[in-house]
Every structure is written in C-alpha cells, then in structure tokens.
Amino acid sequence: MKQFKEEKFRLLRQGVIYDLIGMVSMTIPFLGPFTDLLWAPYASKKMRDMYPGRDGKIAAVFVFLEEILPFTDVIPSFTLMWLYTFVWKSQTSTQMITK
After folding, report:
1. What does the DSSP assignment read for 15-44?
2. What is the Cα–Cα distance from 34 to 7, expressed in whole angstroms?
3. What span, in angstroms and rounded, lies between the C-alpha atoms of 48 and 56?
4. CA 43 – CA 48 distance, rounded (Å)
C-alpha cells in the first residue's frame, strides 16, 4: 500500500513538472509556438508511458492536441489526468462497490 501511495504522488509530481514545462513556452515570444512543435509529441509519449491502457492513449491524444494548438498551453492536462485516475475514477469505483 505504501508503494502504491509513493507511486501515485510520484506521478503527480512528474505531471505538475510536465504541465509547467508546457506552460513555459507561452512566455517566450515568437519562439514559444515552435517549441510546442517539439514538446507536443514528447508530452504525448510521456502521457502514454505514465498512464498505460486505453485511458492513457486517450489522454496522450488530448495532450498532443492541447500542446500543438495555440493558446491552450494553460490547460494542466497531466494534472487533470492524475485527478481523473486517482480521485474521480476512484470515487466512482468506490460508489459502485458500496451500492
């Protein structure tokens, strides 16, 4: 159980860092959009690596689009995926079991 908790929070830390890196490109005038062209495929791969399975594949497509489209870098997609995986999805599973 302790190992699961450590892994869970390691994914959160890693996700926050990736979200911050993705947002930094907005602060670089003229060069920012070009860095997104490099960052989008890398971020997509990292999302697939962090969250294997169907949900991870869907999130990888979402993060790719979010990074490649202009003015969407403010969306914290890695953090949202963590919340979905460990908070919202867990609550739904728990509610289904108790009913």
Report:
1. HHHHHHHHHHGGGSTTTHHHHHHHHHHHHH
2. 33
3. 5
4. 9
As a whole number of angstroms, the distance between CA 20 and CA 83 comes to 16
In the chain, the N- to C-terminal Cα span, in Å, equals 25
- Distance, CA of 38 to CA of 17 (rounded, Å): 17
- Token look-up 């890695």 returns 78
**Domain residue extents for the chain:** 2-81
Give the tokens for residue 65.
């689009």
Pairwise CA distance, residues 67 & 34, whole Å: 11
pTM for the full predicted model? 0.84
For the segment 64-83, what is each residue's pLDDT rounded down to a tens digit?
Answer: 999 999 889 899 999 999 99
